[in-house]
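1st attempt posting a full record on here, be nice pls
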Amino acid sequence: MEFKAYKMDGLGNDFVIIDRRKNNISLDREKIIDLGKRNRIGFDQLIFIDKIDPINPDFNPITIFNSDGDEVEACGNGSRCIAKILCEEMNKDSAIIVTSNRILKAQKIAEKKIKMEMGEPKFDWRKIPLSKNIDHKKISLKIDDNELKDGFALNVGNPHIIFFVEDCFKYDLKKIGPLVENNDLFPEKINLTFAQVKDSSNILVNVWERGAGLTKACGTAACATGVAAFEKKLTDNKINIHFKEGFLNIEYNKLISMTGPVSDIKEIIIKL
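the predicted structure (as tokens):
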């Protein structure tokens, strides 16, 4: 079996995108894990563009899988990449993308720059979710020899916890990340960010992505960090979240918007 797909990235956060609006392509967990290996094709997430519901022809549904084969609810950078594909395909400057739990509105700002309306953050412990009712703004975890304090947990389409620290690269994420991700406090696992505030408009981050591991960038982590920083009165509500290969601009006023670059669309052939 062989079929066409796309390879794209946003700030190094990379994706394989499969269009199954015409062809009913299905991959089981083992095939997704195999394709996700860096010596195979390699990706942080695999995203399907699904068939459109004739009742809502302007809504473009997608299904997202992490490289560990788990289906997930959100992928900010991936959604912006999908938006670029759809905008070019329809010769429009906007598109509406539907995930399993959100409707996202995208706008093409420039040839390789997409703005995405990401919706409203959730702070209720049951919706993050946490396994017990505790203050989501002040979570402390004892992880090996590390005492992580005042973590801010929230849901921006998927669950995140952010720890604001003096040096975000001080921590060994390959060691700490899996332990936080799989902590009993987080029944659906969680994304982990160490955030370093540079000034009222700029934050440097280091991210461990649930189901994907250490990642060059993560759009929903940028959204979550921007919201948490503003709620903790550490920054303004317009914030640049810096990753190794660039930054995303996050604006937060009840609703979250994320603006940033996407790559060219590269067509690939997948052989199974």
